[in-house]
Structures are given as C-alpha cells and as structure tokens.
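User: Show me a protein chain along with its predicted structure.
Assistant: Here is one chain, sequence first, then structure tokens.
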Amino acid sequence: MSSPRIVFVDDERRVLLGIERMLFAMQRDWDTVFVESAEAALQAFDEGDVDVIVSDMRMPGKDGADLLREVQQRSPATLRFLLSGHTETAAAMRALEVAHQFLSKPCEPAQLLAAIDDALSLRTLLSDVSLRETIGAIEHLPSAPRVYARLNSVLQDPNTDARDISAILAQDPVLTAKLLKMANSAYFPNTGRALTDIRLAVMRIGSSMIRTLVLATEVFSQPVWRADVGQLQHQALMTSLLAERIARGHADVSAASVAGLLANLGKLFDVADDSVSRPWGYGEVGAYLLGLWGFPLDIVHAVAYHRSPRHLPRTEFNLLGITHVANSLISGDPLDQDYVHRCGQSGALEKWRETAESIQQRANA
C-alpha cells in the first residue's frame, strides 16, 4: 500500500517548518507536501491524488474555507482539516460546511497527528471509495457537536460541579429547554414541583444523561437532514439508555451510550437509502461521518457494523455487540441470535428485553 499523501497549507513558512520538524521527529510514513498558498495547494491536486489536506483559515487571496470548498468539488474523497487561531464568526460558519474537522491554532503536535492518524485509520476501516466520495461530496456537511465537545472537556476536571455544567448549557436556549423538560419527565422521580432552575436540573439528571441529551440535540437538530428526525431521535435516546444498561460489566458505559445514540445516524442522509443496491448502507454512512468528526474508533466501528456483527470474527461481547443488541431490541431490527450465543450472552437476553420494554414504556408515558 502506498504512503498517504498529505498537503499542509499555511502562508506562514515558520508554521510549515514546525509541522515538518514534528513529522520527522515522530517518524510518520507519509508523503507530505508543504505549500504557502491555496493556489499551490490546488496545483498539488493536479499532480496526484491527495488523501488529506490541512489548511490554515486566514490566508491572502483564497482563504481556507474557499480552498476546502474547491477541494470538495475536485476531490470529494479527500479528508479536509481546517487549522486556525483567529477566525471571524462568518468565516467559521463557511468553513464548518466544508471542513471535516476544525482544529484550533496553535495546535498541540500530538493532537494534530492523532486527528490525522484516526482519519486515515477510518479509511482502512471503511475502505469503499464510493462511500468516501459520496459523503465527501455532500454540499452542506452537518457540523460536529461542539457544545458536547466543550462539555466533555469540562467533565474531565474532577472539580467540575453543577454550576460549571449549567453555565455551558445556559448559553443554548434549545438545550436549556430540553434539559428542563427531561428533568421534569417520568424518567426521574420528583417532588411534584416543576423544576425551573437549570442547576438543579443538572443535579437531578446527572452528567451521563446530560452528555447524551446534549449530543442528541446537537446532532439531530441540524437543518441538513431529510428524514423524520423527531422519531429517530426518540428511538435513539431509548437505544442509548438500553446500551448503557447492557454495557455494565462488559464495556465503557459512556461509550456504549454514545454508540447506541448514534447507531442509526446514517438514516438521516438521503444517500443512505438501503433499498438502493450499494456495497454499503446507513451504518457505514453514519460511521464515516462520526470518524470525520473525530469520534473514537471503537464507537465508529460499533456504528458501522451494528446490523451485521457476525461478519467480524471476534467472540467477546464488546461495544459492537452491545450496540447491536440495544438497537435490535428498541428498533425492531433483526437480532442475530447466533452471534449473541457465540458471545455467551444468550442467558441475558430475556432480562435485556424486559429492560427495553421498561424504557419504552417510560419514554412513551
């Protein structure tokens, strides 16, 4: 297999030299091209295929957003990263439509390399070129869930409390409304009085459920989707809750919650119609988008293959199996009984079915 070809674009030569030194020190087997303008970057595309482009946002003449838009049209399968430290809001909005990932500048070398490594690993996992080209050519890419990313970052701090979390959520009125609605729902016991204080709602719901709610709201409320988003979001939240329950003792509960929530993300795309004969379906479409957003590869893997886990040789009951079972019991998709038996989990199925029924009853109350 040939080395991946990666183009770095920045009008400041010292920035490019820094990246070049970093790559040399970390011994990446990449075919790298360093250029100082959008025009030179496009010339690199004329000279051969490009797997990844990493561009600065603010440059003389054609800026990073315009460059990535042209790259999208010329080479939709190319992974597009934007790297910038000072971007106006309007420019950022243009960039988010065409950039697969938006990294702040200055960016830690390890963070940049990890993002590129994960993106390249994604191409190995989901290797069909037509899938990459189809997703890459979508005119208005849904943007990555940014409040969720901020919330995750804050929750890494052991000193974070409900006041810190509520300060983030309070900046988004839609999230605030949904949080209060959930806190006052049948999901959580209450004293009979409606909660109107977001900080108290955070304390009642807990950080795990808040993460799930924020992620669901950001992902499912984007204007680019074509499907019945309300029904899919409702189903996704139930699948997430069930995946959490199943994961206890088997896998990371937080990862299971996210994989369950986003298992059917690909259904939201027009291109993911499973009635059309293609070598990929909506599982792979959703997984590819999550990979482009920088989600961990174990979650990408679980979303990609949650409908056909038997195609993989492993027999341990991991995140993929959890996502498969949770999605099947909530959505009604076929459950692979042989796979569950092979993983040694047949005895737990009845308990999981009862849990699924309980979650559905409470959600529909």
